[in-house]
Design goal:
Number of strands: 0
Strand content: under 5%
Oligomer: single chain
Largest sheet: none
Low-confidence stretches: 97-125
Shape: globular
Helix content: 55-70%
């Protein structure tokens, strides 16, 4: 919910407020959209006889669902994301082999790795909860 709230806050002018009901409606709609896009992406993945959804599956799903306008911004984001992750390249060790790079499969594509990220997720969740509470306090004071 906090992620959707941040997106809404960034998209709306400062003088626009949202009720809790409107916020909840946006969150629910975002969840339904993600579910629908994931389902359609999975269909493309299965057609290719794969069990892992790749960005090209998501792109194909966007086209299939009539969201071609989102394709270019998503491609731009993915390109920037790849550049950012290449610059960071943290020393993440695989539990089985102990090397610091992603394992490569027979297709040359990176394979999934077991990475312990509980601390990062917990900190992000805590930050999201604090942000939500601050927004609710601001709304209550304005009313």
């Amino acid at each position: 919910m906090a992620c959707v709230s941040r997106v809404m806050k960034a998209a709306l002018p400062d003088n626009i407020l949202l009720t809790k009901d409107a916020r909840a409606a946006f969150v629910r709609a975002a969840g339904i959209f993600i579910f629908y896009l994931t389902h359609c992406s999975n269909d493309f993945c299965r057609e290719s006889k794969r069990t892992t959804i790749f960005p090209q599956d998501v792109m194909a799903a966007l086209r299939e669902l009539g969201f071609e306008d989102f394709e270019q911004p998503l491609e731009n984001f993915l390109e920037a994301y790849k550049k950012d992750t290449e610059h960071r390249k943290p020393a993440v060790k695989s539990k089985s082999s102990g090397n610091s790079e992603a394992k490569k499969g027979t297709s040359g594509e990176p394979q999934a790795m077991d990475v312990d990220v509980e601390d990062e997720e917990g900190a992000a969740e805590e930050e999201d909860v604090q942000e939500e509470e601050e927004e609710e306090d601001e709304e209550a004071q304005e009313e």
